């Protein structure tokens, strides 16, 4: 149609602005590596926070006994227990329960939230039996996965900087969340010990490393994104005042805050300006699941408004932020039919377009592909940046041998095109030979067991 022809320049322009040719990927990977170094030297020197996890002891496989994990990071929290049997028997058994957090608790007081958590934990502990057995003379130990910004002060303490992800609990910011949990457990009459406080990426890395010692990096690509990796202590200048520099620790990069050299469009800038955290988390807004659908919606809204794409059936729905979600893009990209029937259905049901031509449906798939390709390739460049930094500090000990990246998150798990764009970028950056040494391992929900393993590796009884 003529409307379609008029909308084509928008698509061409988008392709141009979202392009991620090799030199751009190189720049992003180099900038990521440089920013990592800056953040390791001095707090606040770069965009990446490079938060030391205080995890100096990774699980080795020799751990034995019963350990618990608590995972708070979204609208659900999880409790888990695991019975460890040492080198040969590994994980003898594990059990977990998921509890959704009521809205009033998310908007209540610190005491209410932690009382709620302690009560559910107590409930779960009361059902312990079967293969689970606590060693004599010990208290039950907990690995606490807490996926909010924390200023960690030791392996088992950390101060909440601020709540995110819809939590608006009063009175917690500035306090040690482990102390808050301990106080609530005491009120509950629950005698347990928090042995490790960890971020979810750190839990994922520890969990994956337990099964595969070549795992050096963990990446989350879900609603949001983050990455952590194993760093040598003598490469962390900002920690040198603490004394011993031997050994390794896990560094939580908080890479979502990265922005150097990203190919951004007017659609990204507008989305950012209208977000709850303008100017922040730009890498996350370009590559993670929460935002890909919304960027595409903004492109389609412009095509509809300025070029009459969808004729006169242009619906108000398309004007609603976040109606089009990343799983919709994914479903449209899997449509292999001649008439793009699935695309038509999504357009009708999700954005209220009653009629669409085949050319329009094709254009919408092309827009989605363009945004998803940019996201996947930039994620690949980010991972390459981390590996590149590790490689140059280790005289070729990273790319010269098998190195594994543990990957978790619904975006990576469910979006095949995103996955292949990510891999493609890494192959372009490393070349066919070195990239064969980099293995991306999908670990599903590794962070819960990972936290329990970290509690075991950092046991108060060791
Ligand atoms: P979270 O990151 O919220 O802790 P997940 O790791 O499960 O949880 O990731 C959920 C995200 O994964 C969703 O917000 C969405 O962006 C993405 N996702 C989920 N399902 C799909 C799908 N079928 N196709 C593409 N993306 C998906």
UniProtKB/TrEMBL annotation:
<dbReference type="Pfam" id="PF00349">
    <property type="entry name" value="Hexokinase_1"/>
</dbReference>
<dbReference type="GO" id="GO:0005536">
    <property type="term" value="F:D-glucose binding"/>
</dbReference>
<dbReference type="GO" id="GO:0008865">
    <property type="term" value="F:fructokinase activity"/>
</dbReference>
<dbReference type="GO" id="GO:0005829">
    <property type="term" value="C:cytosol"/>
</dbReference>
<dbReference type="InterPro" id="IPR001312">
    <property type="entry name" value="Hexokinase"/>
</dbReference>
<dbReference type="Pfam" id="PF03727">
    <property type="entry name" value="Hexokinase_2"/>
</dbReference>
<dbReference type="GO" id="GO:0004340">
    <property type="term" value="F:glucokinase activity"/>
</dbReference>
<keyword id="KW-0808">Transferase</keyword>
<keyword id="KW-0418">Kinase</keyword>
<dbReference type="GO" id="GO:0001678">
    <property type="term" value="P:intracellular glucose homeostasis"/>
</dbReference>
<protein>
    <recommendedName>
        <fullName>Phosphotransferase</fullName>
        <ecNumber>2.7.1.-</ecNumber>
    </recommendedName>
</protein>
<feature type="domain" description="Hexokinase N-terminal">
    <location>
        <begin position="12"/>
        <end position="210"/>
    </location>
</feature>
<keyword id="KW-0324">Glycolysis</keyword>
<dbReference type="InterPro" id="IPR043129">
    <property type="entry name" value="ATPase_NBD"/>
</dbReference>
<feature type="domain" description="Hexokinase C-terminal">
    <location>
        <begin position="217"/>
        <end position="456"/>
    </location>
</feature>
<comment type="similarity">
    <text>Belongs to the hexokinase family.</text>
</comment>
<dbReference type="GO" id="GO:0005524">
    <property type="term" value="F:ATP binding"/>
</dbReference>
<keyword id="KW-0547">Nucleotide-binding</keyword>
<dbReference type="InterPro" id="IPR019807">
    <property type="entry name" value="Hexokinase_BS"/>
</dbReference>
<comment type="pathway">
    <text>Carbohydrate metabolism; hexose metabolism.</text>
</comment>
<dbReference type="InterPro" id="IPR022673">
    <property type="entry name" value="Hexokinase_C"/>
</dbReference>
<comment type="pathway">
    <text>Carbohydrate degradation; glycolysis; D-glyceraldehyde 3-phosphate and glycerone phosphate from D-glucose: step 1/4.</text>
</comment>
<keyword id="KW-0067">ATP-binding</keyword>
<dbReference type="GO" id="GO:0006006">
    <property type="term" value="P:glucose metabolic process"/>
</dbReference>
<dbReference type="GO" id="GO:0005739">
    <property type="term" value="C:mitochondrion"/>
</dbReference>
<dbReference type="GO" id="GO:0006096">
    <property type="term" value="P:glycolytic process"/>
</dbReference>
<dbReference type="InterPro" id="IPR022672">
    <property type="entry name" value="Hexokinase_N"/>
</dbReference>
